[in-house]
Each structure stands twice: as structure tokens, then as C-alpha cells.
Task: inverse folding
């Protein structure tokens, strides 16, 4: 009997090793990551920043916008009724009959001493049927009869606190509480108990009603119906998606450069892996697994940091968005999507370097030498086609209304710029052939390592393109400043007007009589007040007054009449009347100089210089020439009566008007009476107001201080009516600062990677006697060349993108020359200088060749 050992059956596993081989490759990739994680900190850090920013943007988008509950409460409709008490009562009774359950809130206006503004005094029931979300108690208790509760802003204006007495409308009300509107912290009001208001200026009726009820029920006369708008929490989807797309594009481009260098460093190890039988799929899996690990670590860390930061910033954010926020009321599916997209971005960024590394022959990989650069004609042609298609997608998106088109357009444009980058790098190397040695070497290395420098160039182009687009848009908006979606705004955030007239800009035709000593005293007061605001820009504003004009009485205000600009309208009684445009100031040299307009810019024979249009039917009204019966009333008479009262007066109804580049704010001095008109009308200038411009936007405390100062000195001030107004130029400046820092960070990583790959060349230079200055210039030229190319490509893409976004050249109304010069000239010089300063010390790795 004999025995024998039976052979093991042949395995039917695939030739590639199957799942065991993939697990082994993934474990090897994890070991490589643990050994070289420091070299990937830049990519991990950028991905963490991207995830943090994306999650933070999602949180802000979900909680930043105000809810209609600030105005409607839980009701779906409201009716505002003004007019007489009988009309208000009739409207409330009709609403109760037609809609059943209603809630009524009474409103009255209270004057603020020293300013043209007023506050709202409202009678509202705490915990009302519909208005419960509109009222919150922050301190004390709700008011009863003879008591009042005020918001913190009203308390600051009147210098009130719990326990003090507020004298308003001839009544003495005891302050017993501090209240707020949680949905709108800018809503400044005083709260009294229902029935304690007296006569209401208007009433608000809240109710729920179906559409068919509204169609069948007509509104009472003088009633204004408002329907609760559809509320979609957060910004428009296109805005959030575009933000995420831009952030991930930027990080993805940087990650491509980082993973390309990582693949080059591991080239010998990957070649050895191929030599022992690994397939191309295994080589790609090494880098893809590394990208997945980087993405997971960055996504989890970034999301945790964003949520912690969001919880810490909510109290501060509430003061910015001016409404209360529930901290963790977030769209969690969007947060999860942002985390998944970060991982996908890291894996996608590692795919192209993995593909390139897998195609390197085994012998070339074992040698460790990078592949020779390929000609970029075909990729450049493809890049140009992608840019054209991307711009077409942006144009067809109708300014972001079609979200998929704008996202696809941005992605294709960025990919097109990425493919055009190597061609631009090669062209720059050709142009710099006659440059000094260090610059030629720098440009040659950029062309030689164009795989990673091209990705970095695309990232720089993306950042500079965003910054340039913001600067161009801000310049265009500043060119047409003063207009918003609701019409004219009154003043910029860093300007205020100080009026002699108690009516401010509402009564420009009536000015108080001032003695020379009183005028000099007021000028000193205004100068001292401007100094408190750190302002050196004080412009006296003058109105036009007729010699020997009688003192007029208008709206309980007596003073000297001045000229104004008005147009014929139909009065409330159906009779002809005149509507004034606002203040009409004299075009003094000081005022023209303040706005950068020369006196010679006004054509001879011009009567009115303005930035308002059209003014074809407006007429100059000299109130000093009106008949006595017109002066005795507050209703203006027709301009023909002013002309007939003076036999030698000119044709005031047809002034010669010239358009000038003056500011387009409603209360700004943008309608000026010229010296020619003053001479023809026989009028002389008289001090009317002062314009003060501060270095920064006025704060709420400064505005309150201005109100108190004006009331104490018998003056009136006016500031911007939009407390949330943000200076476009400030936004542009911040964008440039952040963009420059981002570009410098990208350059620091890219230049460091390229210089580490050319360590052998630096050893040769050092051995042949190259000085430290040469090495500095070599590094500086690399950074400067990348910054210059990125700025040129980014600015060109920004202009093309804005033209496509607005579907025409009409949006390019102004060129921000200084800011574009900062990008095109200042940024390359700054990058060159920073790299030159930081590249002087010879690294120790130059002393010996590193071994794998």
C-alpha cells in the first residue's frame, strides 16, 4: 500500500488577484499615507476649509433670511388701513364680518427729537391670535394701562430704562419692559396695552383666508391687502449650489496638484509594485484609496469644526441678520451632501494623477524621472471649446434662474481654463527665452512640470477671476449708486446731512433766519461734531434765496423761502398742484470739487446740473415770488403764478438741464442750481445744510449720538435709511485681500512642490557657483510667473463671465483700474517678493540624494 499527497486544486480567482489583492493594495496605500501624511497636510487643510465653509454656508442659508412671520405672524394675509378713525373702524368691521377670526394691531407715530425719523407706537396683545411670533419679552413685564414697553433701540434713542418715565404725545408712560420682534430685530417700536393708544395713524388686521374668499370679498376703501409670501428657507438653490461648486472646484484643482506630486514621489514604489505583478488597476487604486482617506478625514473634521463654530457664532450672527436663530435647525441632508461631495472631490482629484502614474512604463517608473511634457495643442483646443460652451451655459441660465445651467457653465469654464493653462505656460516659456538664467530656468521648470503647475494655475485663475468679477461688479454698481430694488436710497452708509431746517430734506424751501454770529457758531459746532466722527470731509451746502423775500409759514415752520424744483401734479382734491423733487442746492466750487467735477464741466447757459433723469417736465419754483395767497398756504401754486408775479423773471418752466456724474441718492445734493441760473433769477446763496462724510460706515451708536447732538443744538440730521446697507467698495476690498491670501497660499504649496522636485538641478547650480541670490530669483520668478498668468487668465474669464451673465456689454459701465492693477501688477510683484524673501536658505536635502 502506498500513499501520496494530493495537489491543492487550482484557484479560479482572476489573474489580477481579486479582492485579496485589492485589500492588500488598500492596506499598502494606508501605510503610505501614515508615513507621508505630513506631505498631504496642505490638501487636507484646504479640504477641511472647503467643508467648513460649505457647511457654514448651508447653515447660514437655512437661517440667514428673515421669515415672513416677522410681519404676518401665523396669518396668511394682512390689511393695512390708514385714514380717519371712521374709515379704520369700518375696515375692521368689514374684515371681521368677511373673515371671522381676525387680530387688530393699532399703530401711531412718535417723533424723534433732532431727526426726521419716527418710531412706531403700537397697541398689540401679547400672545395674540396671529401675532404671537412677532413679540418677545426680554426683560420686565408687558405693559398695562399707563405703562409702556420699548425695544432696546428705542430705549437708547430716548435714554430710557425699566422704571423710567417716557413723555410722549402729552402723556407720561412708565417703562416696565424691554421687548423685541424675534423675526426682525430692526423693528424698533414702543408697545402699549390694547386700547391705550388713543388715535391710531393706521391699523393692521391679521387674518387667515382662502383665495376664493379674497376673490369674493372686496377690500374697503383705503385698505392695502398683503399676502404672505411663499417662504423657502435659505437662499435660492442656485446661490448655494454655485458657492459649493466654486469652492469644490478650487479645492479640487489644488488637490490635483498635490496628488500629482504625491504620485511623482511614489513613482519608484509604484514601479516596484508593477514589477512584482500589480496591474494598472492596482496602481490606480493606490492613489484613489489615498484620495478617499484624505477626503474622509477632511470631511469629518471640517463638518465637526463647522458645527462647533456655527453654535459659537449664532449669538453674533443674530445681530447681523437681525432675527433670532434656532441653533441646530439645519437641513441635515444638505450637510450630508456637502460631506459626501468633499470625499468625491478628493477621489476625483486623485483620479487623473493615478491614471497618469499607471501609464508610466515600469523602467521609467523605477528611474524616478518625470515624463517629458507633451504638446498641449489638442487639450488647448478642447479647453477653448469648453470655455465657449461654459460661457454659453452661463448666458442661458438667465442670471442663475436655471441652476443646472449655471453649475455646468461654471464647471466647464473652469475645466476649460485648466486645459488652457499648459498652453499659456509653454507660451510664457517661449517668450522668456532671452531672460536672465534664473528666470529661464524657472519658466523651463514650469513647462517641464506643467501637470501640477497647470492645476495650480487653474486654481489661481479661479480665485483671481472671482475677485476680478466682484471688483468689476462693484465698480458698475458704484457707477449707478443709490438705486436698489425698491427705488432710491437716501444716503450712503458713511454720510450724514445736517440741516438748518427742522423738516430736513422735506422742507428745502424754508430756511430759518440766521445772524452772522449764529451762523459762525453753528459752523464751529458742525466742525467739532465732524471731528468726533473722525471726518475731514465737511461740505457746506447752500440754497438759493430771493432778495427781500418775506417770511413764510408752512407746516408750522416759519422762515425764508428758497428756490426748488417741482413738477405739475394733480392734488388730492383733483386740483392742479406742484410736487417738489427735494433739495435744490447751489453748484458751489467746493461741492463740485468734493464730487470730482470741475466748474468747467458745466456748459454755459445751463440752469440745472443733475444726475436725475428724466426731468423734462420739471420747473424751477421761486417761492419768494409767489403771491401772498399762495404763501399763506402749504399747497404750492402753479409755476406760472410765480412767473407772472415778476415781470422780468425768466421762463422758469423750461430750465436748461445738464446731466452730470453726481451721486444718485435721494437726499444727496445731486440737483444743483448753476451760477447762470442764480444770476438770471436774481437770487443769492444762503447756508442750508452740511454734508459730512466719514471714513467708515456710521454705527448705530454714532447715529444715536448724532440725533441727540442735533436735538440739543436746534438742528436736524439725516442718515441712511438702510441700516443693513453694505458698502460695495468695502466688499470689493475684502475680496481682494482674501483672494491675494488664497493665491499666495496656492503659490507657496505649488512652488515648494516644484522646487522639491528640482532638488537635483539646485545641487548642480550650487556646485557650479550659483549664489543665494540666483536661487532666490529662481523661486521668485516661478511664483511671479504663475501669479501673472493666473491674474491674466482670471481677469479675462471674469470679463467674459460677466458679459455672458448679463448677456451683453451694458453691465461694463466702469473699469476698476486700481483694483485690476493690483491683480495684474501688484499680485505678481508681491508673489515674486514673498518667494524671493523666503527662499534664501539652502535646504539640507540638497546635500544628499534621498533614497526610497
Result:
Amino acid at each position: 500500500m502506498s500513499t501520496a499527497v494530493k495537489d491543492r486544486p487550482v484557484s479560479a480567482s482572476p489573474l489580477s488577484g481579486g479582492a485579496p489583492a485589492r485589500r492588500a493594495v488598500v492596506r499598502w496605500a494606508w501605510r503610505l499615507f501614515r508615513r507621508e501624511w505630513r506631505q498631504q497636510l496642505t490638501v487636507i487643510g484646504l479640504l477641511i476649509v472647503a467643508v467648513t465653509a460649505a457647511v457654514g454656508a448651508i447653515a447660514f442659508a437655512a437661517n440667514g433670511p428673515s421669515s415672513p412671520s416677522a410681519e404676518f405672524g401665523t396669518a396668511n394675509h394682512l390689511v393695512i388701513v390708514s385714514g380717519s378713525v371712521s374709515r379704520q373702524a369700518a375696515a375692521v368691521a368689514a374684515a371681521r364680518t368677511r373673515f371671522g377670526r381676525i387680530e387688530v394691531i393699532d399703530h401711531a407715530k412718535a417723533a424723534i427729537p433732532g431727526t426726521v425719523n419716527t418710531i412706531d407706537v403700537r397697541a398689540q396683545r401679547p400672545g395674540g391670535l396671529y401675532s404671537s411670533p412677532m413679540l418677545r419679552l426680554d426683560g420686565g413685564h408687558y405693559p398695562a394701562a399707563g405703562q409702556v414697553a420699548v425695544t432696546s433701540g428705542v430705549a437708547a434713542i430716548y435714554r430710557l430704562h425699566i422704571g423710567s418715565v417716557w413723555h410722549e404725545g402729552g402723556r407720561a408712560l412708565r417703562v416696565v419692559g424691554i421687548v423685541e420682534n424675534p423675526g426682525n430685530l430692526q423693528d424698533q417700536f414702543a408697545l402699549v396695552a390694547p386700547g391705550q393708544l388713543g388715535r391710531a395713524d393706521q391699523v393692521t388686521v391679521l387674518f387667515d383666508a382662502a383665495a376664493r374668499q379674497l376673490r369674493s370679498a372686496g377690500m374697503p376703501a383705503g385698505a392695502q391687502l398683503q399676502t404672505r409670501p411663499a417662504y423657502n428657507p435659505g437662499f435660492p438653490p442656485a446661490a448655494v449650489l454655485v458657492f459649493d461648486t466654486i469652492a469644490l472646484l478650487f479645492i479640487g484643482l489644488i488637490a490635483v496638484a498635490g496628488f500629482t506630486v504625491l504620485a511623482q514621489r511614489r513613482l519608484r514604489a509604484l514601479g516596484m509594485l508593477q514589477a512584482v505583478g500589480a496591474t494598472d488597476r492596482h496602481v490606480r487604486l493606490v492613489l484613489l484609496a489615498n484620495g478617499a482617506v484624505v477626503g474622509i478625514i477632511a470631511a469629518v473634521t471640517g463638518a465637526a469644526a463647522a458645527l462647533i463654530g456655527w453654535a459659537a457664532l449664532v449669538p453674533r450672527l443674530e445681530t447681523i441678520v437681525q432675527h433670532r436663530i434656532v441653533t441646530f435647525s439645519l437641513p441635515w441632508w444638505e450637510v450630508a451632501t456637502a460631506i459626501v461631495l468633499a470625499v468625491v472631490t478628493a477621489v476625483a482629484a486623485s483620479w487623473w494623477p493615478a491614471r497618469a502614474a499607471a501609464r508610466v512604463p515600469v523602467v521609467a517608473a523605477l528611474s524616478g524621472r518625470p515624463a517629458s511634457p507633451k504638446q498641449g495643442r489638442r487639450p488647448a483646443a478642447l479647453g477653448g471649446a469648453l470655455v465657449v460652451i461654459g460661457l454659453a451655459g452661463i448666458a442661458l441660465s438667465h442670471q442663475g434662474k436655471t441652476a443646472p445651467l449655471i453649475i455646468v457653465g461654471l464647471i466647464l469654464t473652469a475645466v476649460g481654463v485648466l486645459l488652457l493653462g499648459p498652453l499659456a505656460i509653454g507660451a510664457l516659456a517661449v517668450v522668456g527665452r532671452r531672460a536672465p538664467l534664473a528666470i529661464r530656468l524657472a519658466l523651463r521648470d514650469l513647462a517641464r512640470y506643467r501637470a501640477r503647475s497647470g492645476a495650480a494655475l487653474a486654481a489661481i485663475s479661479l480665485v483671481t477671476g472671482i475677485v476680478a468679477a466682484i471688483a468689476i461688479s462693484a465698480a458698475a454698481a458704484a457707477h449707478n449708486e443709490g438705486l436698489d430694488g425698491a427705488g432710491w436710497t437716501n444716503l450712503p452708509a458713511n454720510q450724514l446731512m445736517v440741516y438748518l431746517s427742522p423738516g430736513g430734506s422735506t422742507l428745502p424751501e424754508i430756511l430759518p433766519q440766521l445772524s452772522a454770529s449764529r451762523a459762525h457758531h453753528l459752523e464751529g459746532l458742525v466742525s467739532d461734531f465732524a471731528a468726533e466722527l473722525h471726518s475731514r470731509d465737511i461740505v457746506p451746502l447752500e440754497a438759493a434765496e430771493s432778495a427781500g423775500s418775506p417770511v413764510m409759514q408752512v407746516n408750522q415752520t416759519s422762515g425764508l423761502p428758497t428756490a426748488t424744483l417741482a413738477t405739475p401734479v394733480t392734488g388730492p382734491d383733483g386740483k392742479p398742484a406742484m410736487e417738489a423733487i427735494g433739495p435744490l442746492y447751489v453748484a458751489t466750487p467746493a461741492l463740485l470739487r468734493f464730487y470730482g467735477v470741475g466748474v468747467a464741466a458745466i456748459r454755459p447757459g445751463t440752469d440745472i446740473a443733475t444726475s436725475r433723469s428724466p426731468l423734462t417736465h420739471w420747473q424751477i419754483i421761486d417761492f419768494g415770488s409767489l403771491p401772498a395767497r399762495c404763501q399763506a398756504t402749504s399747497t404750492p401754486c402753479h409755476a406760472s403764478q410765480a412767473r407772472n408775479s415778476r415781470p422780468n423773471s425768466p421762463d422758469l418752466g423750461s430750465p436748461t438741464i445738464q446731466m452730470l456724474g453726481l451721486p444718485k441718492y435721494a437726499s444727496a445734493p445731486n440737483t444743483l442750481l448753476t451760477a447762470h441760473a442764480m444770476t438770471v433769477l436774481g437770487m443769492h446763496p444762503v447756508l442750508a445744510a452740511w454734508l459730512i462724510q466719514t471714513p467708515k460706515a456710521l454705527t448705530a451708536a454714532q447715529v444715536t449720538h448724532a440725533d441727540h447732538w442735533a436735538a440739543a443744538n436746534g438742528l436736524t440730521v439725516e442718515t441712511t435709511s438702510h441700516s443693513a446697507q453694505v458698502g460695495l467698495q468695502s466688499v470689493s476690498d475684502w475680496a481682494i485681500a482674501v483672494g491675494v491670501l488664497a493665491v499666495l497660499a496656492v503659490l507657496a504649496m505649488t512652488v515648494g512642490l516644484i522646487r522639491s522636485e528640482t532638488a537635483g538641478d539646485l545641487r548642480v547650480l550650487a556646485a557650479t557657483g550659483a549664489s543665494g541670490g540666483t536661487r532666490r530669483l529662481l523661486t521668485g520668478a516661478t511664483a511671479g510667473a504663475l501669479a501673472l498668468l493666473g491674474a491674466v487668465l482670471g481677469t479675462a474669464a471674469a470679463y467674459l463671465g460677466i458679459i455672458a451673465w448679463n448677456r451683453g456689454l451694458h453691465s461694463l459701465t466702469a473699469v476698476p483700474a486700481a483694483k485690476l492693477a493690483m491683480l495684474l501688477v501688484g499680485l505678481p510683484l508681491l508673489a515674486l517678493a514673498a518667494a524671493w524673501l523666503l527662499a534664501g536658505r539652502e535646504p539640507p536635502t540638497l546635500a544628499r540624494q534621498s533614497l526610497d
